Amino acid sequence: MKRRDLLASTAALAAMPFRTSLRCWWRDKPTPAAFRVMPFDLSRVRLLPGPFLDAMQVNRRFIMTQDPDRLLHMFRLTAGLQSSAEPLGGWEAPNNELRGHFVGHYLSACALLSAGLGDAEVKARGDHMVAELARCQTALGTGYLSAFPEELFDRLRADRSVWAPWYTVHKIMAGLLDMHVHTGNTAALDVLKGMARWTARWTQPLGEAHMARILEREYGGMNDVLYNLAAVTGNEEWSEVAHRFDHERVFAPLAAGRDELKGLHVNTTIPKIIGAARRYEITADPRYKRIAEYFWRDVTERRAYCTGGTSNGESWNTEPGILAAELSGYTQECCVTYNMLKLTRHVFSWTADPTCADYYERALLNGVLGTQSPEDGSKLYYVPLGSGYWKLFGTPLQDYWCCTGSGSESFGNLGDSIYFHDNDGVYVNLFIASQLDWPEKGLRLTQQTRFPEEEGTTLVVSVSRPTAMRLRIRVPTWATRGGAVLLNGRAVDGFAAPGGYFVLNRTWHHGDKIEVSLPMNLHLETMPDDGGLQAIMYGPVVLAGRMGKEGLTSEIIRAEPTKPRSIPEYKREGLPTPSLVAAPAGPEAWIHRDTTSPLTFRTSGQARDFVLDPLYRILDERYNVYWRMA
């Protein structure tokens, strides 16, 4: 298919009358050439009671406690409008060069929560923010919109010191696009187009060498958001502007299948690769598919910890597969996991490879679910994997780190990627209590589970008429103890091997019930470069050893309010990595379930025994993930 025709095809699908995700241009029409499967729009999936819905509701409270006037304060002043609001602190402070970035995340969070919860109040908050930002843009009169003046871009063009103005502008543009796509806000699209026109004018005079220097400064996903705008509007102009943000110095080695990632800032890099994935999807250029797929497999297979996260001190500091010395209080930046999950959705949509879903599950459970304080919705910057550290949550209304923003999106997006579909039926990728509606097929699928506390799930089919369809249920790679399926109470033969899908191809009737048993087991995950350093897992869940609160106070457990451009810092050091003696018979010989709480275990026969709990459940004490095994 020619590029212009493909863009027109995806644009037509994006313009369907129901609200679609940018990753989900689908109705009863053929899938675009790039895609084997498609995720469902967020509005089609409702979470049911369980830990994921609880986390989403905590995030909703966090979002709705934000004061719109304080969020808009620096936008209004930059536009020459009056504002008497109290300025925010941290990375949104008046002297922070990233100020305004959280507002972009905030718009995305409002859009995602509105779609995922069907929440009119959250939508109204997002609509209000869009209207006020439009007023600021009109006052400026050039299409420009930010909480800082254009002078920061002048410094960037002149190769003078500046933080990352394009990064901030990307967040605002992405938030506006999410408000348009997920809530139907047309004003958001108008504001976004104005920003895109300003971007085109700013980049147009720059030669390739000058633009290459610009791209060395973190720019978020500017290519991604402009490719998305091209698809939504059907206007190829935005694809050309997006291409100016494709970073060839990073892309060329990946296209050739080479890992030259050592020394790169991780969260600067991944959004660029997401942009490459979008370029493939709207142009069908296979080079960009190679870039994204090689990068995804390289990072998930050779640069990821047992949690699915990657990075240490925000960078890749070693060659691939060298991770044993990369454990600290600053491992696994949360923004990185957020962006790896975004990229995973793209790769799975092209391949329907269950390996992608396995990774998604691992990273979601261990790298997202436990990164929000249930008390007030504050987010983590890092998930520390160094021994004896603790989770250092932000201070409400003070920090506004990059991960505060991406975390607000992550916990608004929890209904995404549970289900995918093709012409033939539904893929069940994640075991999360939820309800899927597919009105074009007259289908409702209800998933009842307490996973991972329950080792399996139950699916109930509701159809308006008998419906022929394939139902594919993921059998995870960790399901090495077998599994079973009951259909309406009767055993079904031929359960799939780990790392595949169990497929039920039949005519479904109202009330059909599928019960899936997925026994979990204890297993050890070894550091690739140090066989004696191992993590303990139960199924996909990382079990962390509780190490108490030695030297910690309530003040130390929380991050201090941050100054501009600062990151959370530990006031106490970690503790030495504990040693355990692993019995040859396997971990079941020396790790035993504690019946007082689901998924709680205890070691036995050790010099010091530990209580082991899911990493996502440990909030306010020291813990250990990787053990020195004898």
Offer a concise description of the structure.
The protein has helices at 3-14, 51-64, 68-78, 101-117, 120-140, 151-157, 165-183, 186-203, 208-214, 222-233, 236-243, 248-255, 266-283, 286-302, 334-351, 354-367, 402-410, 554-557, and strands at 38-39, 45-47, 419-421, 425-428, 434-438, 443-448, 456-463, 467-475, 484-487, 490-492, 500-508, 513-517, 522-527, 530-538, 541-548, 579-580, 591-593, 601-603, 611-614, 622-624, 626-629. By secondary structure, it is α+β, with helices and mostly antiparallel strands.
The geometry reads as globular
Summed up, the domain count is 2
Helix content: 25-40%
N-to-C span: 58 Å
Q: Report the uncertain regions.
A: 8-31
SS-based class: alpha+beta
Say how many strands there are: 21
In CATH, the architecture of the largest domain is Alpha/alpha barrel
Work out the radius of gyration.
24 Å
CATH class category label of the largest domain: Mainly Alpha
Q: Could you explain how this protein is built, in words?
A:
The protein folds into two domains: 3-33 and 44-417, Glycosyltransferase, CATH 1.50.10; 421-451 and 456-517, Sandwich (Immunoglobulin-like). Helix content is 37%, strand content 16%. The chain has helices at residues 3-14, 51-64, 68-78, 101-117, 120-140, 151-157, 165-183, 186-203, 208-214, 222-233, 236-243, 248-255, 266-283, 286-302, 334-351, 354-367, 402-410, 554-557; strands at residues 38-39, 45-47, 419-421, 425-428, 434-438, 443-448, 456-463, 467-475, 484-487, 490-492, 500-508, 513-517, 522-527, 530-538, 541-548, 579-580, 591-593, 601-603, 611-614, 622-624, 626-629. The strands form three sheets. Strands 13, 14, 15, 16, 17, 18, 19, 20 and 21 form a nine-stranded mixed beta sheet that branches. It is globular. Residues 8-31 have low confidence and may be disordered.
